[in-house]
Amino acid sequence: MSIPAYAPTATQKNPSYNKIRNSSINLDQEVSLFNTVQQREVYESLAELYSIITVLDFIEKSYVKDTLNKDGQDQYTPTVLRLLAQYNTILKNPEVNKEFGSLDTFKKNYNLNCPSATSRIEIGVPATVEHAINVPSSSGLTVAEATGNFITCMDALKLNYKAKDQLHPLLSDLMTSVNKVSSNKEFDGRGKLVEWLIKINKMNINEELSEEDTRQLLFDLDNAYKGFYTMLE
């Protein structure tokens, strides 16, 4: 029986096989994503961001579905605040920020489907802060804490604080402390503060408020401060 002309034989030369056999590449060697310590830190930071986003999405879905137990509900606000702070802190690194791109780009690159986390990251504060949902505690300590945070925010603006990483933590602390006193209660100016939180959160890390925005925020803070004390009367 003759062998067809197109069939390979034991003596037939295979260029691809010979190239691989003669190559110095070790096919059992693990391929590294990085060559320097700096590159390794960037990839580790991207992995941390991936973890933060997926965990945040799980927490948000659990909160909306009301499947958190009592301890989980108590820990929702501090946990989300911590995750958002970690997310923003990691992105302060210019190399990580460059590789990350935008949130939409990152999700597309790594096939992430996390609408709940996306919404929370864009807003920048937990749902309890956004909607004034908390356990009311009108003790002197909580009122003093909220008052101190109002004054801190206004003083920061007077000291020319304009960057996102300077103002967002202060406003977030303010809204958290205010909610401890005014749970489920609206007061004049509160809605404006939430709008400012969202606006500042959407700023780029190197972006600053304009002079006009700074003056408007200071005015809105003063108005909310007066509304807060009117509510306490």
Automatic annotation (TrEMBL):
Keyword Protein transport: yes
A GO term for molecular function: protein-containing complex binding
Keyword field contains Membrane: no
UniProt cross-references to Pfam families, sorted A to Z: VPS28
Domain VPS28 C-terminal: 138-233
CC terms in the record's Gene Ontology section: ESCRT I complex; late endosome membrane
GO BP, sorted A to Z: ATP export; protein targeting to membrane; protein targeting to vacuole; protein transport to vacuole involved in ubiquitin-dependent protein catabolic process via the multivesicular body sorting pathway
Membrane topology: Peripheral membrane protein
Protein keywords: Endosome, Protein transport, Transport
Location relative to the cell: Late endosome membrane
Limits of the VPS28 N-terminal domain: 20-131
UniProt xrefs under PANTHER family: VACUOLAR PROTEIN SORTING 28, ISOFORM 2 VPS28, VACUOLAR PROTEIN SORTING-ASSOCIATED PROTEIN 28 HOMOLOG
Function: Component of the ESCRT-I complex (endosomal sorting complex required for transport I), a regulator of vesicular trafficking process.
Family as reported in the entry's similarity comment: Belongs to the VPS28 family.
Protein's name in the database: Vacuolar protein sorting-associated protein 28
Taxonomic placement: Eukaryota, Fungi, Dikarya, Ascomycota, Saccharomycotina
